[in-house]
Amino acid sequence: MSKPKHKILIVDDELPALTNVQYVLHNHPGWQLIASCHSTAQARAILQAESVDLLLLDIEMPTQSGLDFARELSLASQAPLIVFITAYNKHAVAAFELFALDYLLKPFDDERFAAMMARAEQGIVTRQIVNQSAALKDYFGDQDATLSGEKSPTLSHVVVRSMGRTERIDVNEIIWIGTAANYVEIHIDGRVILHRTTISSMEVRLPPERFLRLHRTAIVNLGAIRSLEIGEDGVYLVGLSNKDKVRVNESSVKRIKQLFSE
Predict the structure, then answer these.
(1) H or E element, residue 94
(2) pLDDT at 262
(3) Most CB atoms within 10 A, among 61, 74, 80, 118?
(4) pLDDT (tens digit per residue) in 130-141
């Protein structure tokens, strides 16, 4: 099986600069160019739909500078590594204050570009190791607490980690949670996210006044419930704000009916 390629996005308003970086990237087959953008607006749209490992970013661009765009990205939970590529050295201090991985001055040679790419690859590997270690710590911490009978702190958010990616989900965004083998499926508006934990671990840590386990395979945000109905097989179902329907066991039907009488 071939090794997955790291994903890269280029943002520069000058076509010759974009073309030059695209050409140099041919010497780095371990990387996949996702897109070449002329503006931060284009890049923002792509980043909303696609995970990217490395962003090569010009600084002096119309509408929004690369520095301002980097500040915006620094607030996101899944920000890519950033390397600034610019013709001006006057922005170097500001760039490194934003934790830029590197700062390339135009024109650069192949050797300098290759050194930057090697640093980027090592940075991605390090990030993956940190994320995996943190995920294992969270998982075994939950298991230890369960086995010892300790009560874990109530969750205000869930940190979901996968290879090269970390996402912070506020519990208020969660519509419902379902089982999926060794994972749970976290359903939020328009998306389903896999998280490596058990549904029982989630149940004891979610705010009990807002979440209820309706079935052995599902936990529901009470605020997301829109309807209660009886299915064709005589089983109760709740309709949720995202249009999903979740089965309700008999012991939970009374609690759901109370919601409609309050």
Answers:
(1) helix 92-97
(2) 67
(3) 80
(4) 555 445 455 545
